[in-house]
Specification:
about 55% helix; binds zinc ion; globular; 5 helices
């Protein structure tokens, strides 16, 4: 169950695309790749879940969930499309890109407002969600191996 939650955590930051429909701009703090993609945001979400959910009530589970969600923002910095991720929110709102951006994400081209978020999600899904889910599963596997061995 924790592994599935980790995978959900890895995808969760992109729920920010609903902001497009609400009129929040991409570059805003709560816009796409904004605060929800920050390492601090990942830690906050993991802490809340650890506090309310028994299965996640351990340092290992907390670190795993933080890592699962933070890996999403980190992977987004490797993309060459759109804006970078606000990794260091709330300390710094700058949109960060890694020095090397090997992942090509098709830019957001559709002018149609509600379609914009969907286009972004589809292009991000295959490059960011899949590796994130793989990372989350690997983290969970390592944690499991460490606790049994
Ligand atoms: Zn993202």
């Amino acid at each position: 169950m924790l592994a599935i939650t980790g995978a959900a955590f890895a995808m969760a930051p992109d729920a920010d695309v609903i902001g497009f429909a609400l009129g929040i701009e991409y570059a805003d703090t709560w816009g796409h790749r904004g605060a929800t993609h920050a390492i601090a945001f990942a830690a906050i979400c993991a802490a809340i879940l650890s506090a309310i959910w028994k299965e996640a009530r351990s340092i290992g589970a907390f670190l795993f969930l933080t890592f699962a969600m933070a890996s999403h923002g980190l992977l987004d910095t490797l993309t060459s499309g759109g804006l970078g991720a606000a990794l260091f929110w709330p300390f710094d709102n700058a949109r960060i890109f890694a020095p090397y951006t090997p992942v090509r994400v098709s830019p957001i081209g559709a002018d149609f407002f509600s379609a914009r978020g969907v286009v972004t999600l589809v292009s991000e899904a295959k490059w960011i969600w899949l590796p994130c889910i793989a990372l989350a599963m690997t983290g969970w596997g390592l944690r499991k191996a460490a606790s049994t061995g």
